[in-house]
Amino acid sequence: MADVKLKILVVEDDLDVAEMLNAYFRVQGYEVFTVNWGEDGVRACQTVNPDLVVLDIRLPDIDGYEVARRLRTDRRTQDVPIIFLTEKRDRDDRLHGLELGADDYITKPFDIQELRLRVRNTLQRATQGSLNNPVSELPDGALVDEKLHDLLRAGKWSLILVSIINLDVFRDAYGFVASDDVLRAISLMIKNAMREGGDPDEFVGHLTSTDFILVVSPENLSALQQLISKRLEQSLDYFYPIKDRERAAESSNRLVIKVIEVPSGRGRFNDVDTLKKELLRLIH
């Protein structure tokens, strides 16, 4: 089993980028397959059975969103991790990709070392059953879905949603190591706040890599929301180098924390996917 290579399918119409990714990931020890058209990507995913798809959004026939939609609606490919690779930076584009079930999102021009780590982390989550986020170590994927399923069965629930806005802009400016430090620090502050202001059986996990979901008791909802908002907002300036803080404070693309309450019993949802989509719309 030690000789079995994990398989990566690259769907990218830029031949230079596709060739570079093919060569780079082969050197990293992966088996790599490349196609240049969306329809070919769908067919290749069904025949190659890759462990991960690196998927460009702008393709010459169908776009990457349509490729992802088809992969997610086919039982043979519905669980294959997808990393979107694109020039688009708009938040709506990222949200659309996440709604379609993408596992991560990286914009061009990209840092090849960052992409390597994102590929590694995504594959680790997939092979470990998507139990925990590799940076924050908070529950992710299947564990969060299980918790949401329990909430739907219970019928009543109270949630706090926390989103890190513009972390991708911060990453572009300061690198993936610095952005991971931000994610790790914010995760720790959320956990500490819950220990102080919550109950032992309350839950915190990831909806996406930058969106958190907290399941809390109704009596703790407002106080805990205020505590988390205050602590996180006070910390944001310190993530920037001293020389950049004044400029960052005036920028429309600075790091922002959004924290909202979802009171008990909001909405009626038939399944976990519908609930997750609604929660993502609320926080974004």
Quick synopsis:
The protein is α/β, with parallel strands linked by helices and 284 residues long. 47% of the residues lie in helices and 18% in strands. The chain folds into 2 domains: 7-127, Response regulator (Rossmann fold, 3-Layer(aba) Sandwich), CATH 3.40.50; 142-283, 2-Layer Sandwich (Alpha-Beta Plaits), CATH 3.30.70.270.
What does this protein look like?
The protein has helices spanning 15-27, 38-48, 64-72, 91-99, 112-127, 142-154, 167-174, 176-197, 221-235, 245-249, 272-283, and strands at 7-11, 31-35, 52-56, 82-86, 104-107, 158-165, 203-208, 211-216, 256-262. It has 284 residues and is α/β, with parallel strands linked by helices. The protein folds into two domains: 7-127, Response regulator (Rossmann fold, 3-Layer(aba) Sandwich); 142-283, Reverse transcriptase/Diguanylate cyclase domain (Alpha-Beta Plaits), CATH 3.30.70. Strands 2-1-3-4-5 form a five-stranded parallel β-sheet, sandwiched between helices. It is globular. The model has no long low-confidence stretch (mean pLDDT 87).
Helicity level, as a percent range?
A: 40-55%
- Outline the biggest β-sheet: 5 strands, parallel
Q: Which whole number gives the mean pLDDT? A: 87
Number of alpha- plus pi-helical segments? 11
Strand order of the largest sheet: 2-1-3-4-5
CATH superfamily of the largest domain: Reverse transcriptase/Diguanylate cyclase domain
Work out the count of structural domains.
Answer: 2
Radius of gyration, rounded?
19 Å
Q: What's the end-to-end separation, in Å?
A: 43 Å
Per CATH, the architecture of the largest domain is 2-Layer Sandwich
CATH topology name of the largest domain: Alpha-Beta Plaits
**What is the strand content?**
15-25%
